[in-house]
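Preliminary data (for renewal application), adenosine-5'-diphosphate complex.
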Amino acid sequence: MIVMKFGGTSVGSVEAIRQVVEIVEAYRERQLLIVLSAMSKVTDSLRSMAEEASEGREPVAALENLLRRHEETVCALADGDERQRALDECGRLIGELSGILHGITLLRELSPRSADLVSSFGERMSVIVVSAALRSAGMPSTTVDAREYVKTNERHTDAEVDFAETDRLLSEGLLALVSGGRIPVITGFIGSTDEGVTTTLGRGASDYTASLVAGAVKAEEIWIWTDVDGAMTADPRIVSDARVLDEISYLEAAEMSYFGAKVLHPMTMLPAVKQEIPIRIRNTFRPDIDGTVITSRTRPAPQGVKAVTSIDRLCLIMVEGTMLSITPDTHARLFKTTAERKTQVIMITQASSEHDICLLIDEKDSAGTVQALKAEFRHEVAEGSLEEISVQPDLAVVAVVGGGMKGTPGIAARTFGILGEHKINIIAIAQGSSELNISFIVDRNDLQRTVQLVHASFELGGSQDFEHH
Ligand code: ADP
Ligand code: ASP
Ligand code: MG
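Predicted structure:
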């Protein structure tokens, strides 16, 4: 069995879905389970429709466009009964969505719970379209709503999966379908709570759904079909000569995705690694290329460096104290506060001589986190043992990643040397104890140049075939 996940661009147009149909056809004897994202840009559009509704305006035009895009795609790819059935189902879903948006318009309130419900429609519609296309091409596909199988807690927009329950439900439900000769076409990204309330697993999480499915059915491999040739030495939108990596380890992939390589959701590796299921990243539009394979093995590379990744739009929250005021208790309360808000802390730095602690977080979490910290430490700030809780905005983090960096001297020297030569200021540095990466903070205006310079200085680009040295 192989679990194949197709991303937004891969199901984003009639031509793209034709490619998907060809790929499924070519590998169908291997027993496939298909996981899909919403059509490209649909999740973004659903989010803005919900926002618009919460401001009291019903997003009539956007809803129309959404329906029309799905209908046109169905009409181009399916005929007869299949076409009619898919059109009916899309129409019914749009009707349901319209009712929900109407409710949000009346209430002028958008809870994370409603936002998740609205976001779920993208994947619920894309599976209808693609499944109709597959059936019209003679393949016995069945749509599967992952909300029946993927069980999560109530952390809306970024819900945590109940692995044991999800694993049990997925294997019970899906193995029966596959052994009955069906090709399940499963919604990525979405799940539900025990009470059946719709949740989502975080942006880009269809990859994660694929890996949960693969773990549950004990698939041989997971293939992530996307719009680039594989995991690359850098984001190809930043570095024009970024190169595809033939082979990386789960740890390297996890590190790269954690530090911004959008090509894989960071949680994807977790279910796969447990059963050592290889993950392949492949290009839907160039299916003859092998892409990247991710397993537990690491291949050597010069200096051990494989990739340079980055995350933009971050800020540093700085908690500044006076002598001795930053105690272990301060740390405990700091992290209790961020944990309660579910603020993801990307990096922590502390210089013991400076009596301050800095937390690197997404700029979206900035205002809320500062407010919560000010409330938590109000007495200390009032009596002066903590000076200030402040924010440094407009930052980005860059990570140099590679399994072979461990024990290779000179990587930091080279990285910071090149940035020094180009007068790029480094705001803070961290190195994980795993020594799989060195990450550092720069001004976001320096981000592109920093990634380009570091990528070039380790000679990662171009036609170099360092993996075969
Ligand atoms: P999908 O919709 O198929 O899930 P995504 O947009 O989520 O696709 O991820 C693929 C994109 O990730 C690529 O188009 C590329 O621009 C971006 N990307 C960022 N960093 C990397 C990297 N290191 N290697 C490959 N792609 C990357
Ligand atoms: N459609 C969702 C998103 O845009 C999930 C995914 O594409 O993986 O975030
Ligand atoms: Mg993605």
